[in-house]
Amino acid sequence: MVAKSNATGFAADAADAALMVPVSTLASAFDLTPRRVQQLAADGIIPKAERGRYPLIEAVRAYLDHIRAVPEIPEGNMDPAQARARKDTALAISAEIKNNISMGKLISQEVVVTTAVAMLGRVKNKLLSLPTRAAPRAKMARTVEEVRALIAAEVDLILIELSDGPDLAEAAQAVTATIAAIEDEED
Fold first, then answer.
1. 3-class SS at 123?
2. Per residue in 158-185, pLDDT tens?
């Protein structure tokens, strides 16, 4: 650096002193909030001369140096903080799913579909067997009301068989086994 004469040095110091600006001016110039400018000053990135006043030229140079020093993230890539946040979110979701499975709040889609198909197959078979079961007794009925009552009784019997049937216990055991298998795979 070239040495200045005392007269020139005093003039430069006086000019720099005249260029002291408030935080709002720097915030506007840097397109930041005043709070962010204060944080940059607290972090030692930009100089602060006195309470609420900043040397304009030094602050601009320091801020430009700071911006140049921060590496740009290539487009399409995440910065490490974003990647970590995504990973943490995924881990939290995974843990929540595991907890819900272990508490029996979630069931595998495959188990639900298999159980529903089996139950609907049973309903279909019971309904298809209704005419075969009811026909011999309906033949002996004398009135339409007796036939209606007979069919209603058969439907009630089918519904009771479906609701109390062993398939419900088997389905519950299948769900429990699936939950245990999922937990074993994840461990």
1. helix
2. 888 777 655 555 655 665 565 555 545 5
Helix residue ranges, H only, the chain: 6-18, 23-30, 34-42, 56-69, 80-102, 109-140, 144-164, 166-186
For 15-72, the pLDDT digits (tens) are 555 588 888 888 888 888 989 988 988 888 898 877 778 888 888 999 888 888 866 6
Contact call for residues 27 and 37 (beta carbons, < 8 A): yes
Cβ atoms of residues 116 and 171 within 8 Å: no
Alpha carbons 121 and 94: distance in angstroms, whole number? 34
Count Cα atoms within 13 angstroms, Cβ side, for 28.
6
Q: Which of 94, 112, 91 lies closest to 102, judged by CA? A: 94
The DSSP 8-state label assigned to residue 43 in this structure reads T
Q: How far is CA 72 from CA 45, 46, 69, 76, in A?
A: 18, 20, 9, 12
Q: Comparing C-alpha atoms, which of 4, 60, 51, 53 is closest to residue 29?
A: 60
Q: Which residues contact 141 (CB under 8 A, 6 or more apart)?
A: 147, 150
Alpha carbon distance 45, 58 (integer Å): 11
Assessment of whether the complete model's pTM goes beyond 0.70: no
φ/ψ of residue 70, rounded to 5? -80, 120
